[in-house]
Predict the 3D structure of the following.
Amino acid sequence: MSKPKEIGTLVVVILKAQHLHQPSFYKQDPYAQVTLSGQTKKTKADSKGGQHPVWDEEFRFPVYADAGKDREHRLLEVACYKRETKGDDVLLGKGSVDVEETLKTGEFDDWVQLETSAGARGQLYIEMTFYANSPPPPTRLC
């Protein structure tokens, strides 16, 4: 099976989070994780970031032509975790964004709701910009 055609680059900026779930009394060291087309990237942990961490980190993802029903290349998955020194990191919340509209308009900046099976767990603010590999189709004036 061949890899789908690359149509451009999606630049994702993970800015900050708010109202994150804080499972313990002590300030947590949260980090964000973002996945698109099977590629996962993480921010650095915000030491003592607590419920309102700030990262302002930029990641670049190749964007592939969508193969019909396969939504893998159009769903950006985001999550926030609490870094643990001992044991596995703790999931604070996760969410997703369909990037199809961003591929058409070129830009997205908004809060993404984070949830777990226990309900709402805060929000993650992200900005996305799409850069196509080819020029846009010419517009016809009527």
User: Anything to note?
Assistant: The two ends are 43 Å apart (CA to CA).
